[in-house]
Amino acid sequence: MSTRYNARDLKQFASDLFASTGLARARADVMAETFLQADLMGFTTHGLHRVASNLKWLQSGASRIEGEPNVLSDRGNTFNWDADFLPGPWIVNQAIDQALERIREHGVVTGTIRRSQHIACLAAYLPRIVERNCVGILTCSTPAEETVSPQGCKTPLFSANPIAFCAPAADYPLLFDISMSVTAGGYVARAEREGDTLPEKYLKDRDGNLSDDPAAFADGGSILPVGGADHGYKGAALSAMLEVLTMGLGGYGRADEVKGDDEANSVFLQIIDPKAFGSEQNFLRQTAALTHLWESCATDEGGSARVPGKRAWALRREQMAQGVSLYPTIEEDLQQLSREYAIPMPAVMGDG
User: Fold this and answer.
1) What pTM did the predictor assign?
2) Are residues 148 and 115 in the same domain?
3) Which chain positions lie within coiled-coil regions (predicted)?
4) Do 212 and 282 belong to one domain?
């Protein structure tokens, strides 16, 4: 049985780490909350796992500790910012604040951000959107990253290009966070760290041969797009669409000199108020019907209906009440940071 940590204590610990770099406490709290939300919902590769990398960026200057984004355009219902490498979790939350402030007047608010430092788990931003009874769409791409090969190619071109979505429904929201690669880079890195192979041949080596060995990716290989070796043209097309929404609308990406950007993201965010289109009750009636019908579908032998958001929302509620169970390597990394920064780890709540 795993040990558990109080969610508030984990947030305070992460915030203390970020504040130790000179980052303002309010910004440190926002970052800590974002990483915590990812782990609460089970997105363990991009939650508290990313604390260490963000600390390094803050200390090295790769992430700006101070300042505001440069507003490139603003029409009220749309805006485009240049973050100039401000911390990703903080700048995205600022953009969401801006959109939510404007949603009553405009109904639909869309924002883009260029040169944001890595924004981590997209799903982590969704609870505050859905708790306002709004629909949210969030996607990002990484201009300096070429890790996903198009269908029929062995040359990597795209970044993982995740997209997250949320919509209020009945007992839980429709909610997902998926990348346009058949597996996320975080899972490839985790398998390599733990000496494991991947569940299937999700990779190509540098010669274009299919592989389940993480070392093939590290040695110049690529990750397959959604759809895999047979139907990857679908994932490649979606990757292109998301790069248009992020890099294209943001005006910064593949056409620019981006080698020094490392993991910095281009971001597209859209928040929609269902009440701008009609009765909120009618909207919720439709989304609730969809989730209920999905749950009632006859399943394959040994299978179950997996409605996006149901498991993540239940896990979030459970871990907020009973404590957060950290993935073993995350706990190891946080303990190392505790020693390195002389900031005590939160007390263990007890066995889960």
Assistant:
1) 0.93
2) yes
3) none
4) no
Q: φ, ψ for residue 189 (rounded to 5)?
A: -65, -40
- Tokens 């260490």 belong to 52
CB atoms within 10 A of CB 61: 9
Q: What's the rounded Cα separation, in Å, for the pair 260 and 62?
A: 10
Q: What is the pLDDT along the chain (352 residues), one digit of tens a residue?
A: 479 999 999 999 999 999 999 999 999 999 999 999 999 999 998 999 999 999 999 999 999 999 999 999 999 999 999 999 999 999 999 999 999 999 999 999 999 999 999 999 999 999 999 999 999 999 999 999 999 999 999 999 999 999 999 999 999 999 999 999 998 888 888 888 888 899 889 999 999 999 998 988 888 899 999 999 899 999 999 999 999 999 999 999 999 999 999 999 999 999 999 999 999 999 999 999 999 999 999 998 878 889 999 999 999 999 999 999 999 999 999 999 999 999 999 999 965 4
Tokens of 121: 């788990």
Question: Can you give the residue range of the structural domain that contains 269?
Answer: 3-182+224-286+312-329
In this structure, the answer to whether residues 108 and 203 fall within a common structural domain is no
